[in-house]
From TrEMBL:
Species per Swiss-Prot/TrEMBL record: Colletotrichum cuscutae
Positions of the UniProt region annotated as Disordered: 1-24
Stored PANTHER family: UDP-N-ACETYL-D-MANNOSAMINE DEHYDROGENASE (PTHR43491:SF2)
A Pfam family it matches: UDPG_MGDP_dh
Family (UniProt): Belongs to the UDP-glucose/GDP-mannose dehydrogenase family.
Protein name: Nucleotide sugar dehydrogenase
Limits of the UDP-glucose/GDP-mannose dehydrogenase dimerisation domain: 220-292
Gene3D superfamilies: NAD(P)-binding Rossmann-like Domain
Length: 432
Protein backbone atom coordinates (compact mmCIF):
# COMPACT_ATOMS: atom_id res chain seq x y z
CA UNK A 1 0.00 0.00 0.00
CA UNK A 2 1.27 3.47 -0.91
CA UNK A 3 0.12 6.68 0.71
CA UNK A 4 0.58 10.16 -0.71
CA UNK A 5 0.12 13.51 0.96
CA UNK A 6 -3.04 15.45 0.17
CA UNK A 7 -5.71 17.41 1.96
CA UNK A 8 -6.67 16.38 5.50
CA UNK A 9 -10.00 14.64 5.81
CA UNK A 10 -12.75 14.17 8.39
CA UNK A 11 -14.41 11.27 6.66
CA UNK A 12 -18.10 10.63 6.83
CA UNK A 13 -19.05 9.11 3.51
CA UNK A 14 -17.57 7.23 0.58
CA UNK A 15 -18.10 7.45 -3.15
CA UNK A 16 -16.72 4.99 -5.65
CA UNK A 17 -15.74 6.27 -9.10
CA UNK A 18 -14.17 4.23 -11.90
CA UNK A 19 -11.53 6.44 -13.49
CA UNK A 20 -11.60 5.18 -17.11
CA UNK A 21 -14.75 5.00 -19.28
CA UNK A 22 -16.60 1.81 -18.52
CA UNK A 23 -17.58 -0.56 -21.33
CA UNK A 24 -21.19 -1.76 -21.48
CA UNK A 25 -22.10 -4.94 -19.55
CA UNK A 26 -22.00 -7.13 -22.66
CA UNK A 27 -18.39 -6.15 -23.23
CA UNK A 28 -17.58 -7.20 -19.69
CA UNK A 29 -19.23 -10.56 -20.15
CA UNK A 30 -21.69 -9.81 -17.34
CA UNK A 31 -25.28 -10.96 -17.40
CA UNK A 32 -26.74 -7.84 -15.77
CA UNK A 33 -30.36 -7.07 -16.68
CA UNK A 34 -31.23 -3.41 -17.09
CA UNK A 35 -33.38 -1.62 -14.58
CA UNK A 36 -36.31 -1.56 -17.02
CA UNK A 37 -36.62 -5.29 -16.37
CA UNK A 38 -37.64 -4.51 -12.81
CA UNK A 39 -39.56 -1.28 -13.39
CA UNK A 40 -42.99 -2.89 -13.25
CA UNK A 41 -42.43 -4.05 -9.71
CA UNK A 42 -41.26 -0.58 -8.68
CA UNK A 43 -44.54 1.18 -9.49
CA UNK A 44 -45.83 0.93 -5.91
CA UNK A 45 -47.79 3.42 -3.75
CA UNK A 46 -45.52 5.94 -2.09
CA UNK A 47 -46.58 5.22 1.49
CA UNK A 48 -48.50 1.94 1.69
CA UNK A 49 -49.72 1.05 5.18
CA UNK A 50 -48.82 -2.56 4.48
CA UNK A 51 -46.23 -3.23 1.78
CA UNK A 52 -47.83 -5.25 -1.04
CA UNK A 53 -46.66 -8.88 -1.40
CA UNK A 54 -44.90 -8.20 -4.69
CA UNK A 55 -42.50 -5.83 -2.93
CA UNK A 56 -40.88 -8.82 -1.26
CA UNK A 57 -40.07 -10.16 -4.70
CA UNK A 58 -38.42 -6.95 -5.83
CA UNK A 59 -34.90 -7.82 -6.99
CA UNK A 60 -33.40 -5.06 -4.89
CA UNK A 61 -34.85 -6.58 -1.74
CA UNK A 62 -34.72 -10.30 -2.44
CA UNK A 63 -31.49 -11.89 -1.27
CA UNK A 64 -31.36 -14.61 -3.90
CA UNK A 65 -31.92 -12.25 -6.82
CA UNK A 66 -29.32 -9.84 -5.49
CA UNK A 67 -26.76 -12.59 -5.30
CA UNK A 68 -27.57 -13.57 -8.88
CA UNK A 69 -26.72 -10.04 -9.98
CA UNK A 70 -23.28 -10.06 -8.36
CA UNK A 71 -20.67 -10.47 -11.12
CA UNK A 72 -17.27 -12.04 -10.71
CA UNK A 73 -14.14 -9.93 -11.03
CA UNK A 74 -11.89 -11.21 -13.80
CA UNK A 75 -8.82 -12.71 -12.08
CA UNK A 76 -6.70 -11.22 -14.87
CA UNK A 77 -7.75 -7.70 -13.93
CA UNK A 78 -5.24 -5.67 -11.91
CA UNK A 79 -7.15 -2.76 -10.39
CA UNK A 80 -5.35 -0.09 -8.37
CA UNK A 81 -7.86 1.38 -5.93
CA UNK A 82 -7.17 4.92 -4.67
CA UNK A 83 -8.79 5.77 -1.32
CA UNK A 84 -9.10 9.55 -1.07
CA UNK A 85 -9.24 10.40 2.63
CA UNK A 86 -7.91 7.79 5.07
CA UNK A 87 -9.76 8.78 8.23
CA UNK A 88 -12.04 6.61 10.33
CA UNK A 89 -14.12 5.74 7.24
CA UNK A 90 -11.26 5.59 4.75
CA UNK A 91 -9.30 3.31 7.08
CA UNK A 92 -12.07 0.71 6.84
CA UNK A 93 -11.98 0.98 3.05
CA UNK A 94 -8.20 0.56 2.95
CA UNK A 95 -8.36 -2.50 5.21
CA UNK A 96 -11.20 -4.11 3.25
CA UNK A 97 -9.94 -3.44 -0.28
CA UNK A 98 -6.24 -4.12 0.41
CA UNK A 99 -7.16 -7.74 1.16
CA UNK A 100 -8.10 -8.12 -2.53
CA UNK A 101 -6.50 -5.29 -4.53
CA UNK A 102 -3.50 -3.00 -4.60
CA UNK A 103 -4.53 0.14 -2.69
CA UNK A 104 -3.23 3.70 -2.90
CA UNK A 105 -4.09 5.92 0.08
CA UNK A 106 -4.23 9.69 -0.41
CA UNK A 107 -4.32 11.91 2.67
CA UNK A 108 -2.29 14.02 5.04
CA UNK A 109 -1.78 11.93 8.14
CA UNK A 110 1.49 13.03 9.76
CA UNK A 111 0.76 11.09 12.94
CA UNK A 112 0.23 7.76 11.23
CA UNK A 113 3.01 5.20 10.93
CA UNK A 114 2.65 4.88 7.19
CA UNK A 115 5.19 5.45 4.47
CA UNK A 116 4.25 8.54 2.49
CA UNK A 117 5.19 9.88 -0.89
CA UNK A 118 4.78 13.50 -1.94
CA UNK A 119 3.94 12.92 -5.60
CA UNK A 120 0.30 13.38 -6.49
CA UNK A 121 1.08 11.90 -9.89
CA UNK A 122 0.87 8.50 -8.18
CA UNK A 123 -2.89 8.92 -8.43
CA UNK A 124 -2.62 8.80 -12.22
CA UNK A 125 -1.99 5.07 -11.90
CA UNK A 126 -5.30 4.43 -10.13
CA UNK A 127 -8.14 2.72 -11.95
CA UNK A 128 -10.79 3.41 -9.30
CA UNK A 129 -11.21 6.13 -6.67
CA UNK A 130 -13.03 5.72 -3.34
CA UNK A 131 -13.68 9.20 -1.96
CA UNK A 132 -14.29 9.33 1.79
CA UNK A 133 -14.25 13.00 2.72
CA UNK A 134 -17.09 14.79 4.51
CA UNK A 135 -19.80 17.14 3.49
CA UNK A 136 -19.84 19.52 6.46
CA UNK A 137 -22.22 22.23 7.60
CA UNK A 138 -21.57 25.94 7.98
CA UNK A 139 -22.57 27.83 11.12
CA UNK A 140 -26.00 28.57 9.62
CA UNK A 141 -26.51 24.84 8.89
CA UNK A 142 -26.12 25.31 5.14
CA UNK A 143 -24.04 22.72 3.28
CA UNK A 144 -20.29 23.30 3.02
CA UNK A 145 -18.52 21.35 0.26
CA UNK A 146 -15.19 23.18 0.63
CA UNK A 147 -13.36 20.04 1.79
CA UNK A 148 -14.10 18.50 -1.56
CA UNK A 149 -16.16 19.75 -4.45
CA UNK A 150 -16.46 16.14 -5.57
CA UNK A 151 -18.13 14.15 -2.85
CA UNK A 152 -21.56 12.83 -2.00
CA UNK A 153 -24.10 14.13 0.43
CA UNK A 154 -27.43 15.73 -0.35
CA UNK A 155 -29.88 14.32 -2.87
CA UNK A 156 -28.67 14.59 -6.52
CA UNK A 157 -25.19 15.72 -5.43
CA UNK A 158 -23.51 12.77 -7.12
CA UNK A 159 -25.18 13.48 -10.45
CA UNK A 160 -24.54 17.24 -10.32
CA UNK A 161 -20.97 17.23 -9.00
CA UNK A 162 -19.41 13.85 -9.68
CA UNK A 163 -20.76 10.67 -11.22
CA UNK A 164 -20.88 8.09 -12.56
CA UNK A 165 -21.37 5.76 -9.56
CA UNK A 166 -22.12 6.06 -5.85
CA UNK A 167 -22.08 3.75 -2.85
CA UNK A 168 -22.95 5.06 0.61
CA UNK A 169 -20.80 3.80 3.45
CA UNK A 170 -22.29 1.91 6.38
CA UNK A 171 -19.28 2.07 8.68
CA UNK A 172 -19.77 2.52 12.42
CA UNK A 173 -16.43 3.66 13.91
CA UNK A 174 -15.55 1.62 16.97
CA UNK A 175 -17.83 -1.29 16.08
CA UNK A 176 -16.16 -4.66 15.62
CA UNK A 177 -19.17 -6.76 14.64
CA UNK A 178 -20.27 -7.11 11.98
CA UNK A 179 -17.02 -6.51 10.08
CA UNK A 180 -17.07 -4.04 7.22
CA UNK A 181 -17.17 -6.69 4.50
CA UNK A 182 -20.22 -8.38 6.06
CA UNK A 183 -22.43 -5.27 5.94
CA UNK A 184 -24.63 -5.33 2.80
CA UNK A 185 -23.24 -2.80 0.33
CA UNK A 186 -25.56 -0.48 -1.60
CA UNK A 187 -24.20 0.23 -5.10
CA UNK A 188 -25.54 2.41 -7.89
CA UNK A 189 -24.56 3.90 -11.22
CA UNK A 190 -25.48 6.62 -13.68
CA UNK A 191 -26.17 4.12 -16.45
CA UNK A 192 -28.48 6.62 -18.16
CA UNK A 193 -25.44 8.85 -18.73
CA UNK A 194 -22.55 6.38 -18.74
CA UNK A 195 -23.68 2.86 -19.68
CA UNK A 196 -21.93 0.15 -17.70
CA UNK A 197 -21.36 2.27 -14.58
CA UNK A 198 -23.22 -0.09 -12.29
CA UNK A 199 -21.55 -3.15 -13.79
CA UNK A 200 -18.14 -1.59 -13.22
CA UNK A 201 -18.66 -0.84 -9.55
CA UNK A 202 -20.18 -4.28 -8.97
CA UNK A 203 -17.16 -5.96 -10.51
CA UNK A 204 -14.92 -4.11 -8.06
CA UNK A 205 -17.03 -4.44 -4.92
CA UNK A 206 -18.09 -8.04 -5.45
CA UNK A 207 -14.62 -9.20 -4.49
CA UNK A 208 -14.65 -7.22 -1.23
CA UNK A 209 -18.16 -7.39 0.22
CA UNK A 210 -20.22 -10.47 1.04
CA UNK A 211 -23.41 -9.03 -0.41
CA UNK A 212 -24.10 -6.26 -2.91
CA UNK A 213 -27.47 -4.52 -3.12
CA UNK A 214 -27.74 -2.68 -6.47
CA UNK A 215 -30.24 0.14 -6.81
CA UNK A 216 -31.52 1.84 -9.94
CA UNK A 217 -29.93 5.29 -9.62
CA UNK A 218 -27.38 7.19 -7.56
CA UNK A 219 -30.22 9.29 -6.16
CA UNK A 220 -31.69 6.16 -4.58
CA UNK A 221 -28.36 5.36 -2.91
CA UNK A 222 -28.06 8.92 -1.61
CA UNK A 223 -31.61 9.06 -0.28
CA UNK A 224 -31.27 5.62 1.29
CA UNK A 225 -28.28 6.76 3.34
CA UNK A 226 -30.06 9.90 4.51
CA UNK A 227 -33.19 7.90 5.34
CA UNK A 228 -31.19 5.49 7.51
CA UNK A 229 -29.40 8.17 9.52
CA UNK A 230 -32.28 10.63 9.83
CA UNK A 231 -34.61 7.89 11.03
CA UNK A 232 -32.11 7.09 13.76
CA UNK A 233 -31.84 10.72 14.86
CA UNK A 234 -35.61 11.13 15.01
CA UNK A 235 -35.96 7.96 17.10
CA UNK A 236 -33.32 9.21 19.55
CA UNK A 237 -35.05 12.60 19.73
CA UNK A 238 -38.32 10.85 20.58
CA UNK A 239 -36.59 8.72 23.23
CA UNK A 240 -35.38 11.96 24.82
CA UNK A 241 -38.89 13.42 24.77
CA UNK A 242 -40.27 10.25 26.30
CA UNK A 243 -37.68 10.51 29.07
CA UNK A 244 -38.64 14.13 29.67
CA UNK A 245 -42.25 13.02 30.11
CA UNK A 246 -41.39 10.09 32.40
CA UNK A 247 -39.34 11.92 35.02
CA UNK A 248 -42.03 14.29 36.40
CA UNK A 249 -44.19 11.21 37.02
CA UNK A 250 -41.42 9.39 38.88
CA UNK A 251 -40.96 6.83 36.10
CA UNK A 252 -37.51 5.53 35.14
CA UNK A 253 -37.20 6.08 31.35
CA UNK A 254 -34.52 3.41 31.05
CA UNK A 255 -36.83 0.84 32.63
CA UNK A 256 -39.57 1.87 30.20
CA UNK A 257 -37.20 1.44 27.24
CA UNK A 258 -35.98 -1.94 28.51
CA UNK A 259 -39.53 -3.19 29.02
CA UNK A 260 -40.60 -2.05 25.54
CA UNK A 261 -37.61 -3.86 24.04
CA UNK A 262 -39.12 -7.18 25.12
CA UNK A 263 -41.57 -6.92 22.22
CA UNK A 264 -40.20 -9.15 19.44
CA UNK A 265 -41.70 -7.10 16.59
CA UNK A 266 -42.73 -3.55 15.74
CA UNK A 267 -40.31 -1.88 18.16
CA UNK A 268 -36.67 -0.89 17.87
CA UNK A 269 -34.96 -0.06 21.18
CA UNK A 270 -33.64 3.47 21.71
CA UNK A 271 -32.58 5.01 25.00
CA UNK A 272 -32.37 8.68 26.04
CA UNK A 273 -29.04 10.44 25.68
CA UNK A 274 -27.31 13.80 25.68
CA UNK A 275 -27.49 13.97 21.90
CA UNK A 276 -25.88 12.66 18.72
CA UNK A 277 -22.39 13.31 17.39
CA UNK A 278 -20.08 12.57 14.48
CA UNK A 279 -20.15 13.61 10.83
CA UNK A 280 -23.30 11.70 9.85
CA UNK A 281 -26.35 11.67 12.10
CA UNK A 282 -26.23 15.31 13.35
CA UNK A 283 -25.66 16.78 9.88
CA UNK A 284 -27.60 14.50 7.53
CA UNK A 285 -30.98 16.12 8.30
CA UNK A 286 -29.69 19.37 6.84
CA UNK A 287 -28.78 17.63 3.58
CA UNK A 288 -32.45 16.73 3.17
CA UNK A 289 -33.63 20.14 4.36
CA UNK A 290 -31.44 21.84 1.76
CA UNK A 291 -33.87 21.01 -1.03
CA UNK A 292 -36.95 19.42 0.56
CA UNK A 293 -39.49 20.16 3.30
CA UNK A 294 -39.32 17.88 6.35
CA UNK A 295 -41.16 19.63 9.22
CA UNK A 296 -40.86 16.71 11.67
CA UNK A 297 -37.21 16.14 10.85
CA UNK A 298 -36.40 19.84 11.15
CA UNK A 299 -38.07 20.05 14.56
CA UNK A 300 -36.23 16.95 15.78
CA UNK A 301 -32.88 18.29 14.57
CA UNK A 302 -33.44 21.62 16.32
CA UNK A 303 -34.41 19.90 19.57
CA UNK A 304 -31.35 17.67 19.37
CA UNK A 305 -29.03 20.62 18.78
CA UNK A 306 -30.48 22.47 21.76
CA UNK A 307 -30.35 19.53 24.19
CA UNK A 308 -26.81 19.95 25.63
CA UNK A 309 -27.51 23.58 26.55
CA UNK A 310 -30.86 22.57 28.06
CA UNK A 311 -29.17 19.85 30.12
CA UNK A 312 -26.59 22.37 31.35
CA UNK A 313 -29.36 24.77 32.38
CA UNK A 314 -31.17 22.05 34.32
CA UNK A 315 -27.96 21.09 36.08
CA UNK A 316 -27.22 24.68 37.10
CA UNK A 317 -30.79 25.17 38.35
CA UNK A 318 -30.51 21.99 40.41
CA UNK A 319 -27.26 23.16 41.99
CA UNK A 320 -28.81 26.56 42.71
CA UNK A 321 -31.74 24.92 44.49
CA UNK A 322 -29.33 22.85 46.57
CA UNK A 323 -27.42 25.98 47.56
CA UNK A 324 -30.60 27.77 48.61
CA UNK A 325 -31.66 24.75 50.62
CA UNK A 326 -28.38 24.88 52.50
CA UNK A 327 -26.87 21.79 50.94
CA UNK A 328 -23.98 23.88 49.67
CA UNK A 329 -22.48 27.26 50.43
CA UNK A 330 -23.93 30.01 48.25
CA UNK A 331 -20.56 31.75 48.35
CA UNK A 332 -18.72 28.89 46.62
CA UNK A 333 -19.10 28.32 42.89
CA UNK A 334 -20.33 24.79 42.21
CA UNK A 335 -17.83 22.43 40.60
CA UNK A 336 -19.08 20.22 37.76
CA UNK A 337 -17.30 17.35 36.00
CA UNK A 338 -18.46 16.22 32.55
CA UNK A 339 -17.40 12.65 31.75
CA UNK A 340 -17.03 11.69 28.09
CA UNK A 341 -16.48 14.35 25.41
CA UNK A 342 -15.62 12.27 22.34
CA UNK A 343 -18.57 12.08 19.98
CA UNK A 344 -19.34 8.60 21.35
CA UNK A 345 -17.85 5.87 23.51
CA UNK A 346 -14.49 4.59 22.32
CA UNK A 347 -13.83 7.65 20.14
CA UNK A 348 -11.49 10.62 20.53
CA UNK A 349 -13.05 12.40 17.53
CA UNK A 350 -14.90 15.54 18.63
CA UNK A 351 -17.00 16.18 15.52
CA UNK A 352 -20.35 17.62 16.64
CA UNK A 353 -19.76 16.12 20.09
CA UNK A 354 -22.70 16.74 22.46
CA UNK A 355 -20.27 16.31 25.38
CA UNK A 356 -18.17 19.22 24.15
CA UNK A 357 -21.34 21.26 23.65
CA UNK A 358 -22.31 20.52 27.25
CA UNK A 359 -18.92 21.69 28.53
CA UNK A 360 -19.16 24.87 26.46
CA UNK A 361 -22.67 25.57 27.76
CA UNK A 362 -21.40 25.42 31.35
CA UNK A 363 -18.49 27.70 30.49
CA UNK A 364 -20.76 30.24 28.78
CA UNK A 365 -23.07 30.33 31.78
CA UNK A 366 -20.31 31.62 34.04
CA UNK A 367 -22.17 30.11 37.00
CA UNK A 368 -20.09 26.98 37.63
CA UNK A 369 -16.51 25.78 37.41
CA UNK A 370 -16.43 22.91 34.92
CA UNK A 371 -13.83 20.25 34.08
CA UNK A 372 -14.00 17.24 31.79
CA UNK A 373 -12.73 13.68 32.10
CA UNK A 374 -11.96 11.61 29.03
CA UNK A 375 -8.83 9.45 28.74
CA UNK A 376 -9.05 9.50 24.93
CA UNK A 377 -9.29 13.29 24.51
CA UNK A 378 -6.27 15.51 25.14
CA UNK A 379 -6.39 18.90 26.85
CA UNK A 380 -5.37 20.64 23.63
CA UNK A 381 -8.48 19.29 21.91
CA UNK A 382 -10.87 20.98 24.37
CA UNK A 383 -9.08 24.13 25.56
CA UNK A 384 -12.23 25.81 26.91
CA UNK A 385 -12.14 23.79 30.14
CA UNK A 386 -9.45 21.99 32.17
CA UNK A 387 -9.08 18.24 31.79
CA UNK A 388 -9.07 15.95 34.81
CA UNK A 389 -5.80 14.00 34.78
CA UNK A 390 -6.29 10.26 34.39
CA UNK A 391 -4.52 9.55 37.68
CA UNK A 392 -7.02 11.82 39.45
CA UNK A 393 -9.89 9.47 38.65
CA UNK A 394 -10.23 8.35 42.26
CA UNK A 395 -12.74 8.64 45.10
CA UNK A 396 -10.92 11.46 46.88
CA UNK A 397 -10.75 13.72 43.81
CA UNK A 398 -14.21 12.95 42.46
CA UNK A 399 -15.81 13.83 45.80
CA UNK A 400 -14.51 17.40 45.44
CA UNK A 401 -17.14 18.01 42.73
CA UNK A 402 -20.70 19.04 43.46
CA UNK A 403 -22.02 17.27 40.38
CA UNK A 404 -20.69 14.68 37.93
CA UNK A 405 -22.54 14.28 34.63
CA UNK A 406 -21.73 11.14 32.65
CA UNK A 407 -22.43 11.88 28.99
CA UNK A 408 -21.44 8.29 28.17
CA UNK A 409 -19.27 5.59 29.68
CA UNK A 410 -15.96 6.33 28.00
CA UNK A 411 -13.49 3.49 27.67
CA UNK A 412 -10.62 3.41 30.14
CA UNK A 413 -12.54 4.66 33.19
CA UNK A 414 -13.68 2.59 36.18
CA UNK A 415 -17.31 3.58 36.67
CA UNK A 416 -17.70 1.27 39.65
CA UNK A 417 -16.19 4.04 41.73
CA UNK A 418 -19.35 6.10 41.23
CA UNK A 419 -21.21 3.89 43.71
CA UNK A 420 -18.69 4.77 46.41
CA UNK A 421 -19.00 8.55 46.14
CA UNK A 422 -20.59 10.55 48.94
CA UNK A 423 -21.72 14.16 48.92
CA UNK A 424 -21.70 14.51 45.14
CA UNK A 425 -24.62 14.31 42.71
CA UNK A 426 -23.89 11.76 40.00
CA UNK A 427 -26.07 12.00 36.92
CA UNK A 428 -25.79 9.41 34.18
CA UNK A 429 -27.74 10.97 31.35
CA UNK A 430 -30.51 11.68 30.79
CA UNK A 431 -30.24 14.35 33.46
CA UNK A 432 -33.32 15.93 35.05
Amino acid sequence: MRVTIGKPSFHSRSLSVPAPPTPPPEALGLNLPGFDTFKANFDLPLTPVTPPPEYKEHPFSHNDRVRDLSPVVDPNDQPLVAVIGVGYVGTHLVESFSAHYDVLGFDELPSERIRFTTSKTDLHEATHFLISVPTLLKADKSIDTSNSTRTTGFHRMTRSLLGPVATAHRVDPGRIEPPCHAIPKIVSGLDDEIPGSLASVMRLYNQVFDRLVPVSRTEVAEMMKLYENCQRMMCIAFANEMADACIPHGIDPYEVAAAAASKPFGYMPYTPSLGVGGHCIPVNPYYLLSNSAFPLLEAAAEKMNARPAAIARRAIDSLTRDAKAGAASALVRPRVLVVGVGFKAGQSVLSNSPGVDLVKAFVRSGEVDVMYADPLVKQSAVPVAPRLADEKWNKETLETFDMIIVAFRQHGLDFGIMDELRGVKVEILPFY
